[in-house]
Amino acid sequence: MATLLLSLLVLSLFPPSNSMGPPSPGYYPSSRVGPVQFKQSFRNLWGPQHQSLNQDTLTIRLDHNSGSGFKSQRDYRSGFFGTSVKLQPGYTARIITSFYLSNSEDFPGHHDEIDIEFLGTTPNKPYILQTNVYIKGSGDGHIIGREMQFHLWFDPTKGFHNYAILWNSNEIIFFVYDVPIRRYPRKSDATFPQRPMYVYGSIWDAWSWATDDGRIKADYRYQPFIGRYNNFKISGCTTNDNPSCRPPSGSPSRFGRLSRKQNDAMEWVQRNYKLYDYCHDPQRDHTYTPEC
């Protein structure tokens, strides 16, 4: 008994390293971007009856009739785009809560997209955060997603947590609390999105693929499914801005490279929490993903 108590005391004082969160990235790009008001920067896209705004916290809902989505007022050719999200606990299988960039309305079937998606789950199983990049939607009839999936080092259903995408002419970086979890560099024009995109958020039923590849179904006895957003941050270059416009930097380097501390933090996340990387999937046809 004494040994057990001693072990518990040691664990409470010195928990396992991956329960403490990642090392400090040393640079916090979100601190350099002020918040924007939802009504000034976004509008309802669909499901207006399933969307409500209380001060500057947006709630979007999904039930058996409809989900809901929102869209930025302007399109951007680069920038830093962030928000805080609180996810619904419990049974959310097949339900996707998302924050992303896209030009799908301008280029249907041939669009670019940069995604942060939370894949719904079942009780006592953690959410999966999926990051994804599409370039011109498809290649020779093949839908080409570039997915990388993670668990999180905290419970995303308890309170609001910060997520962001940085996109510029050289790279895409996905952030969680300013910790870079994935960097997607521009290796060629064919593998990097360059056309202007809008900022979106939505909640919807991904019936064909989410949660164990679609094998676990949504259960509408638990409706409505709810996603909450606040602390919206946008600092970018719109299509109407001067060509000299530059988005915020994702790193302290004037050359835009991640610092050593940022790389250490990203490697820690990928070592401890990365679940899937499309480049390392032996079942994928990498003919259409030459960046791998």
Q: Uncertain segments of ≥5 residues (pLDDT<50)?
A: 1-18
Number of strands: 17
What percent strand?
A: 35-45%
Task: Name the helicity range.
Answer: 10-25%
What would you say the CATH architecture of the domain at 48-240 is? Sandwich
What is the general shape? globular
Report Rg.
Answer: 19 Å
- CATH topology tier name of the domain at 48-240: Jelly Rolls
Class by SSE composition? mainly beta
Helix-strand layout with pairing:
Layout: H1 2-13, H2 38-41, E1 42-46, E2 51-54, E3 57-62, E4 68-72, E5 76-86, E6 95-102, E7 113-119, E8 128-134, E9 138-139, E10 142-143, E11 148-150, E12 161-167, E13 171-176, E14 179-185, E15 198-205, E16 225-238, H3 260-273, E17 274-277
Antiparallel strand pairs: 1-4, 2-3, 3-16, 4-15, 5-12, 5-16, 6-7, 6-15, 7-8, 8-11, 9-10, 11-17, 12-13, 13-14
Concise summary:
By secondary structure, the protein is mainly β. The chain has a domain of 193 residues: Jelly Rolls (Sandwich), CATH 2.60.120.200. The protein contains three helices and 17 strands.
Task: Please explain how this structure is put together.
The chain is mostly beta strands and 292 residues long. It has a domain at 48-240: Jelly Rolls (Sandwich), CATH 2.60.120. The protein is built from three helices and 17 strands. The chain is globular, with a radius of gyration of 19 Å. The termini are far apart.
Feature tags:
292 residues; single chain; Jelly Rolls; mainly beta
